[in-house]
């Protein structure tokens, strides 16, 4: 099935954001676990695994639309972060991803690609849940000092 170049570009943008997201979450998870923050580390690890599945779903959709998967060079600086900084980084990345997904949904509507829209709707719900879990864990962490 030949898809709209605009929708394929939007799907590629979401794919690249989810790719950056799972790298951020993998690093943050490993650091949290190493520092003894098991609850936060396990939460981030579970989100990382879900992001890998979402990455595959987006890639498969692009291929189904006869598009090419275009990976951007990732711009991520791996530095030593505190747990608070890692959580903020994770939240910022999820917010950026959610914005990309919403833009993709709007393009899918414009080009009447309802299959891609359904996929992005599902991904949006999943990512909003992830964001809510991270924000809740961050509140717990700030209230108790160690989640």
Describe this structure in words.
This protein has 147 residues and is mainly alpha-helical. The chain has one domain: Ferritin, core subunit, four-helix bundle (Ferritin), CATH 1.20.1260. It has helices at 5-34, 38-64, 83-110, 114-144. Helix 1 runs antiparallel to helix 3. It is elongated. The mean pLDDT is 89.
Report the CATH topology name. Ferritin
What does the main sheet amount to?
Answer: none
In angstroms, what is the radius of gyration? 16 Å
* Helicity level: over 70%
Detail the poorly predicted runs.
none
Number of domains: 1
Q: How far is the first residue's CA from the last residue's CA?
A: 48 Å
Number of helices: 4
Q: What fraction of the residues are assigned to beta strands by DSSP?
A: under 5%
CATH superfamily: Ferritin, core subunit, four-helix bundle
CATH C-level class: Mainly Alpha
Task: Report the count of strand segments.
Answer: 0
Structural class: mainly alpha
CATH architecture: Up-down Bundle
Order of helices and strands: HHHH
Note the overall shape.
elongated
Question: Mean of residue pLDDT?
Answer: 89
Short account of what is shown:
This protein is mainly alpha-helical and 147 residues long. 79% of the residues lie in helices and 0% in strands.
Strands, helices and their partners?
Elements: H1 5-34, H2 38-64, H3 83-110, H4 114-144
Helix pairs in contact: 1-2, 1-3, 2-4, 3-4
What characteristics describe this protein?
mainly alpha, Ferritin
